[in-house]
Specification:
Layout lengths: L6 E11 L6 E12 L4 E5 L6 H9 L6 E6 L2 E2 L10 E4 L11 H11 L4 H14 L15 H13 L5 E5 L7 H18 L2 E6 L2 H7 L2 E6 L2 E6 L1 H6 L4 H6 L4 E11 L2 E6 L2 E7 L8 E6 L4 E4 L4 E10 L3 E8 L2 E8 L12 E6 L4 E3 L1
Parallel strand pairs: 3-8, 3-9, 6-7, 7-8, 13-20
Antiparallel strand pairs: 1-2, 1-4, 4-5, 9-10, 11-12, 11-14, 12-13, 14-20, 15-19, 16-17, 16-19, 17-18
Helix pairs in contact: 2-3, 2-4, 3-4, 4-5
Length: 357
């Protein structure tokens, strides 16, 4: 593979016209990103947040209305997609139906006038990398969805791009195959060492494959961090609610000192982490992850069980605390007491597992 390249976006904006109102709106607004060479970065967010538009601007399929995009230090706004050192893996695979596997993978190299001997060597090496060697003569309609995705990945990798782009590449696969394919994509990216930018709306997908996650909402970046940072240290209610499951309880901040706060919630006082900018006197949200609390006969917050469901690996509860509904996932319940609907119990949790926003 060629030299790994980073990507830098400086104050990028993309403006579209709303077909219903005729008014302009920002699909992406004043976005600045610095993606390090060799890393796997995921653009994550709900539909319409701007993640796909951002990816398409990097690829050259859309042009920014404001700002500049750099690839390995080179400004690329003026370059057409085929002149950029990038390759895209599409959601629809975009394979050529009348070509076999070998010719699909070789297509881009033939366009670039690479010699026949080099094409064969590079295609066979890449097919081995994606575990499709021995299937080079198969037609694409003879392949499973997972195999077609491997061919699409091979076709992009064989070009030896500086940056590999993924536009929701697994959304057409069933749930089990999605999990295995995302693992394979991550393994291949790490083995090759290529810079990868991946778009998805699937939080678990982003958590499992990314070095860093960029969470977007309404055309703007909400937070950038490692999966652990995003999960345990969200900087807003939107991020806390979007990544995984989160419970929110209204709390009154009694005092705040650096990254710790003393709060009152449901009539109880407790010490928690302060990950926002809460100050004494504020009304803020106490965040409790479903797996961070368990039900017990003694604890910090009294609760009433509204739903109790055995899920195998965990007991799933919905409980009421001070009139607010919370979800609890109590893992490995085999030796624990199971609380039934209507029972009173207490939430017990480590104060390090809850925090104030």
């Amino acid at each position: 593979m060629k030299e790994k390249k980073g990507v830098r976006l400086e104050h990028i904006s993309k403006i579209y016209k709303d077909p219903k109102t005729g008014k302009d709106f920002y699909a992406v607004e004043d976005t600045t990103l610095d993606i390090e060479a060799g890393t796997f970065v995921t653009l994550l967010g709900p539909s319409g947040c701007g993640k796909t538009t951002t990816l398409r601007m990097i690829a050259g399929f859309e042009s920014p209305d404001e700002g500049e995009i750099y690839l390995g230090g080179e400004a690329i706004n003026h370059l057409t997609p085929n002149k950029r050192d990038t390759a895209m893996v599409f959601q629809s695979y975009a394979l050529l139906p009348h070509y076999n596997v070998f010719d699909n993978v070789a297509y881009g190299l033939k366009i670039r006038k690479v010699s026949r001997e080099e094409i064969r060597e590079r295609v066979m090496n890449i097919l081995k990398l994606v575990e499709m060697d021995g299937m080079e003569s198969r037609m694409t309609n003879q392949l499973s969805g997972g195999q077609q995705q491997r061919v699409a990945l091979a076709r992009a990798l064989v070009l030896e791009p500086g940056v590999l782009l993924f536009d929701e590449p697994l959304s057409n696969l069933d749930a089990k195959l999605r999990v295995s394919m995302r693992t394979e994509i991550r393994k291949i990216q790490q083995k090759v060492g290529i810079t990868a930018i991946y778009v998805t709306h699937d939080q678990s997908e982003a958590m499992s494959i990314s070095d860093k996650i960029i969470i977007m909402s309404k055309g703007k970046v909400e937070q950038i961090g490692t999966p652990r940072e995003i999960y345990y240290h969200p900087n807003s209610r939107f991020v806390a609610d979007f990544i995984g499951e989160a419970n929110f309880l209204d709390a009154r901040v009694l005092s705040a000192d650096g990254d710790q706060a003393r709060i009152q919630v449901a009539g109880k006082q407790m010490e928690v982490g302060n990950f926002g900018s809460a100050r004494a006197g504020d009304t803020a949200a106490l965040v409790i992850r479903p797996e961070a609390a368990v039900l017990a006969d003694k604890g910090q917050l009294e609760a009433t069980v509204m739903l109790s469901t055995f899920m195998g690996a965990y007991q799933y509860y919905q409980v009421l605390v001070d009139g607010m509904e919370l979800q609890i996932t109590d893992y490995n319940p085999v030796n624990r007491r199971i609380y039934e609907v209507g029972e009173k119990a207490f939430l017990d949790f480590d104060s390090r597992g809850v925090y104030i926003l």
